[in-house]
Amino acid sequence: MQLVEQILLVSAVFIVLAASQSLRKHEYCVIGAGPAGLQLGYFLRAAEHDYAIIERGDRPGAFFETYPRHDTLISINKRRTDSRNTEYSLRHDWNSLLSNDEQMQMRYYSIKMFPKRQDLLLYLKDFKERFNLNVHFKTEVTGLHRLTESSEYRFSLETSQGQYHCQVVIVATGLFKMKSLNITGLEHTSSYDDMSLNPADYENKRVLIIGKGNTAFETAAHIYGRTKLIHLMSRNRVRLAWSSHYVGDVRAVNNELLDTYQLKSIDGLLEYDANDLFVLRRPDGSLAVGPKDLENDLDQTLFEENTRGLFETKLLSKIGNKNSSFSVELEGEGIVNFNYDVVIRANGFEFDRSWLPNVTTVRNGKYPKITPSYESTDIPGLYFAGTLTHSLDYRKAAGGFIHGFRYTVRALQRHLDAKRHDRPWPSLKQPLTGLIDTMVRRINEGSGNYQMFQNLGDVFIVDRAASSFTLLEEFPLRLLPSLPSASGHPVGRDSLLFVFAFEYGKNFSGPALDVFHEERASCSPEDAYECNFLHPVIYQYNSLPTDTRKAALKQPMYPLSLERCAMLAVMHGSTKPAESWCGGSSESRQDSAAMLRGWSAADMMQHGWKQK
């Protein structure tokens, strides 16, 4: 009997140990150990929070074990600048994560302007080890559930290694699922993620690549030297990064095919929605491609012919008769091509929400729908970080890329600190006499506002009574209406706010514009508000904005110069709005300048409050 009791006791101990191992509890559960997950882990560890990074792969940045398929990144590795200032240099370093160790920069891992994915993999591995980040590898998250209100924790995560209970869940998985296409005959196509990487497999082949983004052009560049011709197809025209100023558009490092197209060398571009295509394999192995609405009208015996001409002729005839929008390019020989040997789907990635079915998506399913504080609109307490927050600045700033989301990740952590731990947003408080010097320094050096223009900005809270100001760096501008609760900093009734952000002018780019014209970066100090290139803009608020449905920034001040217009606003903020000094006609601005003649910045700050 005693032996039986001992056996039962040992069994109970093992059961308790197994249960404790299968259930892990953390305040913050970060899903994904890519660049965003590691960056968030760094900040959570620095703040001494209880956290775990959950990663399904066996190493940090597992995405980059496969992608980009042809190895070369499109993020700039600017190793040298004119400044020794690390903050300034980060404006031109697109791969490094933020840390207090200057040796943890990508420039020490590659000398190439565009590093290889293997370089980034090594960098991320070293970053994880250097800061001893708590990453649980080989753990795949399969589900998320809300716990009862009485529970100590808010969420339960189902994983391949057991359960996690978490107060806050932050998804930083990035975009790793290829966009789906509704092509008839999809089985006859290959995908960017499973295509052959051996250029010899494309020798003397006619190739159709579906997509006109960086994945498509990267693929074309890799196989171009072996192919007979390459066509790229999408419903939209090509958008070039150097024209749009959006880093996610086609980069010059990938766009060699545009040369061959524009210089009349067989290759071409097609404008058509690939979801309306059919792909049929002919007996000779070639692929017949055309609009779905014509598929049933074609004589099936056409696909038994060994020659392609008959099919092309009849399909072209049908297109003409049906007024189809199928747009084609003429080859050098004047023959319209509808036959290919290879069709590759390279139309980009989207958010995988298979384990989050209740999360709403935006941008045609590409991103989860989130609030300005990076929180899910559907599940309170569920946050997103990294590329998945790019919906807030899509086709504008760099929030979908390392050099942008390293700053939004930091903003998220600062916001959570203020909201959950009563730790106000890090700030700098100084006498009012230092306002202009501080503002100019941030304009000249700050990297977060520079990369996340129009989305992150510096907020200067001016306390008139104390003749001092408080600076909050890189604050999400859409959170301005809720600044006190979002940052932990009160804004008094008598406070004056200046907000500095970088912006492009209205006519900085566009399909019909010459982005290399002589006045492309014309920014004279006296008319800086008319600058069309990236430039600093200062907004003045006599009270917090209240409309959360629109962008937080209102009409900017139109300064004579950064210093003089800001001083006028400070001097007359309580009795005269800044617009009356900095807006209006050029004559009124000249009158304002005449009044200031002979005043230094220090004079204005010391005596400005007495001016009426």
Structural description of this entry:
With 612 residues, the protein is α/β, with parallel strands linked by helices. The strands form 6 sheets. Strands 1, 2, 3, 4, 5, 6 and 19 form a 7-stranded mixed beta sheet that branches. The protein folds into 3 domains: 23-177 and 349-416, FAD/NAD(P)-binding domain; 186-345, FAD/NAD(P)-binding domain; 426-606, no CATH class. Helix content is 27%, strand content 19%. β17 and β18 form a beta hairpin. α2 (35-46) runs parallel beside α10 (402-421) and α14 (562-572) packs parallel to α17. Residues 7-20, 320-336, 548-552, 557-562 and 572-612 have low confidence and may be disordered.
Short note summarizing the structure:
With 612 residues, this protein is α/β, with parallel strands linked by helices. The protein has 17 helices and 24 strands.
Topology:
Layout (H helix, E strand, L loop, with lengths): L1 H21 E9 L3 H12 L4 E4 L31 H4 L27 H14 L4 E2 L4 E6 L8 E5 L2 E10 L5 E2 L11 E2 L14 E5 L3 H10 L5 E6 L6 H4 L11 H7 L5 E4 L5 E5 L5 E5 H4 L13 H14 L16 E2 L1 E4 L3 E2 L10 E2 L4 E2 L13 E3 L17 H20 L5 E5 L3 H11 L2 H4 L4 E8 L4 E9 L6 H5 L7 E9 L31 E7 L20 H11 L5 H5 L3 H11 L4 H7 L5
Parallel strand pairs: 1-2, 1-6, 2-3, 6-19, 8-15, 9-10, 9-15, 10-11
Antiparallel strand pairs: 4-5, 5-6, 7-16, 12-13, 13-14, 17-18, 20-22, 21-22, 21-23, 23-24
Helix pairs in contact: 2-10, 14-17
Provide the CATH top-level class of the largest domain: Alpha Beta
- Kindly name the structural category: alpha/beta
- CATH architecture tag of the largest domain: 3-Layer(bba) Sandwich
CATH superfamily of the largest domain: FAD/NAD(P)-binding domain
Number of helices: 17
- Number of domain units: 3
Note the overall shape: globular
Indicate the CATH topology of the largest domain: FAD/NAD(P)-binding domain
